[in-house]
Model the fold of this input.
Amino acid sequence: MAKKIYERLKTISFSRPSGTAEERKALDYLAQEIQAIGYEPEFEEFTYQRKVPVEATLAAVLEDGSEVNFQVTGVVDALETAPEGETAEFAYLPSYDEVSLANLKGKFVLLHGRLSKEEYRRLRKAGIKGYAITSGTVRDTYENSDLETVRFRDNLSDAGPLPAFTIRMIDAVELLRSKLAKVHYTLRLQEESVQSRNLIVTVPGTSDQGEILVAGAHYDSVPFSLGSWDNGAGAVQMISLLEALKAHPVKRTVKVLLFGSEETGLRGSRAYVEAHPEVIEKTRAMVNVDVGGSILGKELLFIGAVSDTEVWVRQFLKEVGYAAVTVPKLMSSDSANFNDYGVPSISIGQGAPQGGGYMHTRYDNMELIDEDVLEREAGFLTDLVERLANAKVFPIPKVIPEGLRKEAIDYFGKKSHLATQPPVPEEKPLPFHF
Done:
């Protein structure tokens, strides 16, 4: 079994970005494996719009007026500059303290890491004109690294986009060393329509078909990454789950989903929850798998449900003898869309030790994938799904607690579905009586 999972993952370990022929090729292969088990998968196509960079430049303007160019890539769905570009004073912002934010008006800012909603709100209030975020490490070289393409996130859209770029960390160091006073930058975007697909397998329950359990994983990757860890592993583990369900039917209906275009904003799972209100109404919970199979790292379970669910999961881990850490929070993966539509979730992932991770880089490949780890993770996924699908009374209340509700609304911004719905109160236990 371990060899079979490993070979499936090896087969789809090629770069398969959203909307590309490679993404389609990967799903076609997974569908063939599903058909060989004895299921007939359904495909659902969906389309979304985005603005992608076609020109992105950043130059340091030195005191003598000369310019030094640095390689950058534009942020998807950011704001274009004027065709001739823009010039602004430069500032480096290593932290968001009040002193650092006090003198940013009209400046172009160098930042580290992804922006939270609150950080971006502060930058907009400070009056910045544009920004660049760093990618990679100071040990990178041009030969061994790629510039990560990121997108302007939905939860920032209330404040409006700005011209935004990604720059290698090694170039950020040189930019600062150049003692620049100003930068000149250009960003041109082109709107495009992207078509992608979800795959759906419905495994009817043996007795209780009125309740549905969803299990899902995304199968796309970011550009230049082979996506073995993120998230080919989760996709092939779903195939193993289907093999187990074929051999051992369960009480409740299970829908196994493979989502396209997760890496560009959870697009596939969003398309699914929006298109299937009748399924969401019957769905008691969603089990998600995103990132796995590495010989390094610890197993994580993100609990998108009421607090009692984490207690139940911890006891279940002891019962089946599976070592994992529970994290009570919304996971930035396809499970978040189910949370936003009122469905609790358990999202299975893997955390890498410092220096041992390679998400969204060219080093996400088969080198650190271990077939025994893949088999162990797939076995736990099956154990969890079977336990939930066969429970006499479903152990997870269909309630999104207030803390998770706030996380979802903050994560999705004005696109949040929960923001339009009244909160669902948790049931309190009845008083004790003889």
Q: What stands out?
A: The mean pLDDT is 95. Residues 46 and 167 are 32 Å apart (CA to CA).
